[in-house]
Amino acid sequence: MKDWICKKCRKYRRFNPEHLRLGQIICFLVFEIEGVEIKKIIKEGVLLKRMNTILMVLDHGKIFYLKESDVYPIDAPADFVYNMFGECFCFSDY
Ligand SMILES: [Zn+2]
Predict the structure, then answer these.
(1) Largest CB tally within 10 Å, which of 50, 53, 64, 72?
(2) Which pLDDT score is estimated for 2?
(3) What is the C-alpha separation between 32 and 64, in angstroms, rounded?
(4) SS3 letters for the chain?
(5) 9: left (phi over 0), alpha (psi -120 to 50) or beta
(6) What is the Å distance from ligand 1's center to 56 Cα?
(7) Residue 16: predicted pLDDT
(8) Could you tell me if 85 and 78 are in contact, meaning their C-beta atoms sit under 8 angstroms apart?
(9) Ligand 1 centroid to 90 CA: how many Å?
(10) What is the pLDDT of residue 94?
(11) Rounded to an integer, what distance in angstroms lies between the CA atom of residue 69 and that of residue 72?
């Protein structure tokens, strides 16, 4: 988790989608509707291809097209980490 801490302010950085590499495992959220229930499902897939801001992700033989802002690396800090320890807004280079 150390890589996620900003050297300037010591708070946690959000990841930069431009740093995603092809072949990297990423997480994304899909919704399934069952009757009146909306289920949030976190999926993991492999980044296959990038077309501008759209990513092509493979999960169990299925292809998903996702916006780069809707995915995050598998080792990214969870949202509560930002709430607890603060989020970096330095926008400094990695
Ligand atoms: Zn910072």
Answers:
(1) 72
(2) 63
(3) 15
(4) CHHHECCCCCCECCCCHHHCCCCCEEEEEEEEEECCEEEEEEEEEEEEEEECCEEEEEECCEEEEEEHHHEEECCCCCHHHHHHHCECCCCCCC
(5) alpha
(6) 30
(7) 81
(8) no
(9) 4
(10) 47
(11) 8
- Give me ligand 1 centre to Cα 4, in Å: 10
CA 13, CA 61: separation in Å to the nearest integer?
32
The residues, ordered by sequence, that sit 6+ positions from 83 with a Cβ below 8 Å of its Cβ are none
b/e code 39-62 from CB counts within 10 Å (16+ = b):
eeeebebebeeeeeeebbbeeeee
41 Cα to the center of ligand 1, angstroms:
31
In order along the chain (94 residues), what is the average pLDDT of each group of 10 residues?
82 85 92 94 94 95 93 84 90 56
